[in-house]
Structure formats: C-alpha cells, structure tokens
Amino acid sequence: MVDKAPNEFLAIGQVAKRTGLSVSAVRFYESAGLVFPDRNPGGQRRFRRSDIRRLSFVLIAQQLGFSIEQIREQLNNLPQGRTPTQKDWARMSRGFRDHIDHRIEVLNRMRSRLDGCIGCGCLSLQNCALYNPLDRAHRKGPGPRYLLGDPGD
Predict the structure, then answer these.
(1) What is the domain extent for residue 150?
(2) What mean pLDDT is predicted for residues 42-55?
(3) pLDDT tens digits, 135-147
(4) In the prediction, which pLDDT does 6 show?
C-alpha cells in the first residue's frame, strides 16, 4: 500500500487541532497579518501546511515575550504565496536571532544580579550603599540601571 501525500491545504479546524490553538486564535492571527489563507469557492479558509510552522513560530515568539508587531515584522521576511524553504527560514531567523541574543543577555544579568543591587534607587539592601552610593545610578536614567546594562560606578 502506498501512502498518499498529505493534502496541501487544510481547513481552519485542522490547523487549530495541529497547532493547539483555538479556531478563534487562528482567525486572530490571520487578522493580524501573520497567516494568509486562501479561500475555497464556498468562502472557507484553506491554509497551507506551512502555515502550521508559521503559527508555531508565533506561539514560541509570544512565549519569549515578542509582540505581534515584532513577530509580523519577522514573518514579513518570508515569501507569500508559496511554502517557505529552509533557506527562507534561515534568512528570516538571522534578524530574530539578534533579538533573542539580547533577551538572553538581559535574562542572564537578571538571574545573576536580582538578589543584589540593581541600580533602581531604592537603596533598601545593605549592598546598595556599596554598589550605588547616594543613588548615583539615577544619573544614567530611570529604572533598574544595572539590570539594563549600565555598569556600576
């Protein structure tokens, strides 16, 4: 028995089931310009199988804290009207990788410094007097200056 190739186009319910999204979430991502389904003669949405990957990318990117606009910006680097190739995905991921690398740096700083002085100006910890004497960090701007990447004085 020979396996048939999977159907190139999927109904919205099939895409929702495969991605773990609700049908309404798939519609939302369509309205946000993240996927572009075709329509059959009856007006029903028909998604390419590659839209499963696009929506999976959206889910992961959102879990990493990226906005819909940032995700759309990256997905706009992929071709429309055809299934993206590995080369297309590699080209798109280069820009996204810079954002991820920056987030990793911030998370690493936070992990290693959160229990110490972060340069926020609260001066509530004993070591703040050593790392941020007289709240000198405020000269560099608002917020947790040391977590944002500013060196201590």
Answers:
(1) 114-153
(2) 93
(3) 999 999 998 898 8
(4) 60
Cα–Cα distance measured from residue 141 to residue 150, given in angstroms and rounded to the nearest whole number: 10
Residue 8's pLDDT is 82
Least Cα distance to 32 among 68, 75, 65, 57 occurs for 68
The radius of gyration of the chain from alpha carbons, rounded to an integer in Å, stands at 23
Question: Both 118 and 103 in a single domain?
Answer: no
Q: What are phi and psi of 46, to 5 degrees?
A: -130, 115
Within this chain, do residues 122 and 48 fall inside the same structural domain, yes or no? no
CA angle at 44 for the pair 42 and 50, rounded to the nearest 5°: 135
Q: Cα separation of 78 and 112, whole Å?
A: 37
- The string over 50-74, giving b where at least 16 C-beta atoms fall within 10 Å of a residue's C-beta and e elsewhere, is bbbebbebbeebeeeebeeeebeeb
Domain annotation covers residue 56: yes
pLDDT in tens, 63-108: 988 999 999 998 988 888 788 899 998 988 887 888 889 889 888 8
- Structural domain count, the chain: 2
Verify that 119 and 86 share a domain, yes or no: no
- CB of 66 closer than 8 Å to CB of 99: yes
Residue 102 Rama label (left phi>0; alpha psi -120 to 50; beta): alpha
- Dig out the tokens for 131 from the structure: 């790392």
